[in-house]
Amino acid sequence: MAVTGVKSLTNLLQQGSVWRGSKSTLADAAVLSSGFCELDELIGGGWPKGALVEIISEASLGLSLLIPVLLKLSKQPYWLAWINSPYIPYAPRLQSLGIDTRKILLLRKLADEQALWAAEQALQSGNCKVVMLWPSKLNTAQIRRLQLAAETGDCLGVLFRPRSARALPSVAALRLQVEADEQALLLRLLKRRGGWSANTRLRICVG
After folding, report:
1. CA 135 to CA 128: how far, in whole Å?
2. Helices and strands of the chain, counted as H and E runs
3. Splitting the chain (207 residues) into consecutive groups of 10 residues, what average pLDDT does each group show?
4. Domain with 130 in it
5. CATH for 141
6. Entry pTM
7. Cβ atoms 42, 28 nearer than 8 A
8. 31 φ/ψ angles, rounded to the nearest 5 degrees
9. Does 39 reside within a domain?
10. Is the residue at 146 inside a domain?
11. How far is the first Cα of the chain from the last one, in angstroms, to the nearest whole number?
């Protein structure tokens, strides 16, 4: 019986059905520096490539955390997808930050299923380096599909979700809760692949 149990566990590990904690961090895998040293330390080296990140906040709060990586990626021959953003990106502001707005792929006012389909296709296409999605609701199976699509396309996927999503289960590699604090953001680490940092909270000025 013990041998059978070991074999069963080995099969589950090989299939990726079981998550294994370790002392390793996302820095051991491919990451994209956030452009904020303290944030990189908090999240394990940077934004995880080929993985899904959840930013739990109100509307687009926390989007400023992605500005440095959007700037870097906009200089590459790939799309930066914005799907169902509640606001139209303000091109003059993005350009003043150095972001090439010609690389932005903007899809808005899509029905829920259309938005999820578009995000999955963009994530796995290999033509996008970041896909940002503002979903109205998601279930575990849908999040898993997006995570697999991100892995397939080696793409950073970012989900902007409301505060109510904090209590819901998620297979995303990284989860952050973001709150406003005058001219700064208060970050709380909810989940990080590969372990935890010494601190789980951070106050960061984004300018």
Report:
1. 19
2. 6, 10
3. 42 42 46 94 93 89 93 96 93 96 96 97 97 94 96 97 91 94 89 73 82
4. 47-183
5. 3.40.50.300
6. 0.83
7. no
8. -135, 160
9. no
10. yes
11. 60
